[in-house]
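Human: We require from you a protein record containing the residue sequence and its fold in token form, and nothing else.

Assistant:
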Amino acid sequence: MYKLVLESRYDGTDFVGFQIQDNGRSVQGVLEEALREIYKTDIDLTGCSRTDSGVHAACHVSSADVPFFIPSEKVPLALNAVLPPDVAVKSAWYAKEDFNARFMSLGKRYIYRIYSSPVRDPLIARYSFHTPYAPDISLMKEAASYMTGTLDYASFCAAGGSQNTTVRTVTEVNVTEDGKIPGLILIEVKGESFLYNMVRIMAGTLFYAGIGKISPEEVKMLFEMPDRKKAGKTLPACGLTLEEVYYDKERWMVQL
């Protein structure tokens, strides 16, 4: 057996998320079907993250045991030949037997996109939250400055999560304007791990700060006196993209 690791990219619009569920089409299910066609046997994938319904990924990592060796540079070509248009395998590599895409992850980087314009743009709508309001970027940046550290993020967790603790470590929260598309605002969040809907709620809170519904000082208080009801709304899944997953490849990668 060989431990194969896939780095995939997908448009999450028509998926119920990465993980297989009873209520619809999943990225995991589509990838496992493609692996079954290539390896002629059932393959179980372990994903680095579930990702919610409608969330996109520029780089999602998953691992699986496969029965025989295919050169890593040929694996994406073989899989992409049978995958649907909204999923692609960017690259593949082989890892040590005990590698696990979920538990070996050192952290993740997300970007939430907000498109501020009086008119909705159909070419951007699938990958951003549209608002007719023009948020104050300086207020969003000030609010974001309170969101980093090893803190209690209970105010930014939706009901239904299965976590044992709401304490998480977030290393960066950056708010910038795209520079190429007027009105497109990027909220970049980096951290070790995240609570259920955490990034979408953080984005909603920064959006509220930008339109004056909550002050930056009140955002700071959300960590001192956690209260989900006082944070911003959970912004739609379409605006969120998993951009990067971090691993110590030198420790886990093997050359075959």
Q: What stands out?
A: The chain has a mean pLDDT of 96. The domain at 107-243 is CATH 3.30.70.660 (Alpha-Beta Plaits).
